[in-house]
Design goal:
globular, about 190 residues, two-stranded antiparallel sheet, about 30% helix, 8-stranded mixed β-sheet
């Protein structure tokens, strides 16, 4: 998606060869016009799927998902990281490792909001090593939901996430694919 690539070139920061910061429009401050464009692109890409729910993991995947949920007229459900003490429902859960934060999280989703009747589109802000996506897949499989698509806003294609997810039989649609961040230079996959 060329518009997203322009935003990344203009506002993205590269502190090292593995990290891309997009706080100016996605991970801290949210550019609502861009979020709507991302949602419209996801809607077009997944138009042939019979999506009943959109699922993400808190926090940065929520914004594009809410816009997409609005366009598709379906609920958005987000998996919580490290659930609070008041989350007493029956939940599906698994552990994931965050590449960016270099820590483990337990992600949970209430059994009230996901079931075997759901056709789920999973959306996330970043894909690096695929841990978040793989964790979400484990949880959604446990719920016996049908995963009808995986959408990623920004993929670091030089890391192993896509290969791991595709090895499970899922296609990955990424709106921007980063080939390299070496020497502070953002290079996109052609």
């Amino acid at each position: 998606m060329k518009l997203l690539e322009e935003y990344i070139r203009t506002y993205g920061e590269v502190p090292n060869d593995d990290v891309l910061k997009v706080d100016a429009f996605l991970n801290h401050q949210i550019d609502t016009r861009l979020m709507m464009q991302l949602a419209e692109d996801f809607k077009e890409h997944f138009k042939d799927q019979k999506i009943t729910k959109i699922v993400t993991i808190e926090t940065s995947g929520i914004a594009p998902c809410v816009f997409l949920g609005y366009l598709l007229h379906v609920p958005v459900v987000y998996m919580k990281k490290n659930p609070s003490k008041i989350m007493t429902d029956d939940c599906y859960h698994t552990n994931i490792h965050s590449f960016t934060k270099d820590r483990d999280y337990e992600i949970v989703i209430s059994k009230k909001y996901i079931s075997s009747e759901d056709n789920v589109l999973f959306i996330d802000d970043f894909m690096a090593n695929g841990e978040a996506c793989l964790g979400a897949i484990r949880v959604l499989k446990e719920a016996q939901a049908t995963i009808c698509g995986i959408g990623i806003v920004i993929e670091k294609a030089f890391q192993s996430g896509r290969k791991q997810v595709q090895a499970l039989g899922y296609d990955v649609y990424a709106q921007a694919r980063i080939a390299s961040l070496k020497n502070g230079t953002i290079v996109f996959v052609e």
